[in-house]
Amino acid sequence: MLKALLPESYRDREGLRRVDGAVDLALGRTIRVLVWNMLKARRRDFSRDFAELTADRDLVLLQEAVFNAPSDILFTVPRFEWIMARSFRLPHNGVEHGIKTGCVARAEATRLYRSPHTEPVTQTRKILLATGYRLDHEQGRDISPRRLLVLNMHAINFVSVRKYLDQLDQLAEALQDHSGPVILAGDFNTWNPRRLESFIGLTQEVGLDEVPLDRRSRLSHLAMHLDHVFFRGLLLREAASLEHITSSDHAPITVTLDVPPKLG
Length: 264
Hints:
By secondary structure, the chain is of the alpha+beta class. It has a single domain (about 1-260), classed as Endonuclease/exonuclease/phosphatase (Deoxyribonuclease I, Chain A), CATH 3.60.10.10. Helix content is about 15%, strand content about 40%. It is built from 4 helices and 14 strands. The protein has helices spanning about 1-5, 45-55, 160-175, 195-205, and strands spanning about 10, 15-20, 30-35, 60-65, 80-90, 95-105, 110-115, 125-140, 140-155, 180-185, 210, 225-230, 235-240, 255-260. The strands form 2 sheets. Strands 1, 2, 3, 4, 5, 6, 13 and 14 form an 8-stranded mixed beta sheet that branches. It has a 6-stranded mixed beta sheet with strand order 7-8-9-10-12-11, with helices on one face. Helix 3 (about 160-175) packs parallel to helix 4. The radius of gyration is 18 Å and the shape is globular. The termini are far apart.
C-alpha cells in the first residue's frame, strides 16, 4: 500500500521532455537570465509573477518545476523552447516533477544527470540538466559560432556530505570537456558550511565566478543561501535577488550577462 503512494521515478531514457517554441538558432550578445525555485507553482500569484518575470528573459532556469499540472499553460508561450528533466511522477495525480530550462534559442545538445544517491523516504533523485546553445557574435564580416554550456542543478538535500559530494562529481564531469562560456545556476542546497565550502571549492577549481547578490537570510533555509549563479567567459552587467516576490519560498534571481566581442 505504501509503495503505491510513493513517487514513481523515471529511468534515464524517459527523463527528458522537450516543448518546442523557440525560433532563434542562437543567443545574442546580451543574455538575460532568470533563476528560480518555483515551489511547484503552488502559491497564490505565481502565474502573474512568472509571466512578468519571464517577459524579457532569454534564458530561464527553474527548480521544483512541474508538468501535467495547472501551470502548464504558462509554458506554451511560443517564445521559449522548454526542456524538462524529470525526476519523478506522483501516482495519485500524474504530476511530473523535476527541473526546467527555457531559452529563446534552440538547444543544440542536452544531457541529464541523476544524483547517484536518493533522498530518504521518497527515494527520489535530484537532477543536473546540461544544455548547449549556439552563440553568434560578429567579427568583422564573419559570424563565429561558439557554444554556451548552461547547467541547471537542484542538489540533493537530506543526505550526508559524502553523498552530496558524489553529485558534485557529476557537475565536474559536465564541465570537464567544455572550455567555452558557462552559466551554472540553481538550488544547491548549501544549507551548512561544509556543503557550501565544498561547492564553492569546485566552482573555483573550474574557473567559475559567482554572481554577487544583495539578499536577506531566510530562517526556513537555516539562514544560509541555497540559490547561486556562476559564470565563465561572459561579462556580468547586473544582477538582483527579487526579495519582494513571495509566490515561492525562494526569491527569483535575475542576471544580465554580455558575450565578449571575442571568445577565446
